[in-house]
Amino acid sequence: MNVKTVLKFVRNTVIALALLAVGGWVAFVPSAKEPPYQFVTAWGGKGDAPGQFNDPTGIAVARAEVFVSDSRNGRIQVFDTDGHFKRQFGAPGTEPGKLGRPMNLTIHGNELYVAEYFNDRVQVFGLDGTSKRTMGKSGSGPGEFNAPGGIAVAPNGDLFIADFYNHRIQHLKADGSFIRQWGTTGKIGIWAGQFNYPTDVALGADGTLYAADGYNDRIQVFGPDGAFRRKWGGPFAMNIFGPFNGWFATVTRVALDQSGNVFVADFYNHRIQKFTADGEFLTSFGAKGRGPGQLDHAIAVAAADDGTVFVADFGNNRIQKWRPGK
Amino acid sequence: MKVFWQRTVLILGLVLMSVSAFAAQQAYKLRVDGLACPFCAYGIEKKLNAIKGVQKIEVDIASGTVNVTMTEGASLDEATAQRAVKDAGFTLRKFEPVQPATQTK
Question: Which domains does chain B have, with CATH numbers?
Answer without folding.
Answer: 24-98 (3.30.70.100)
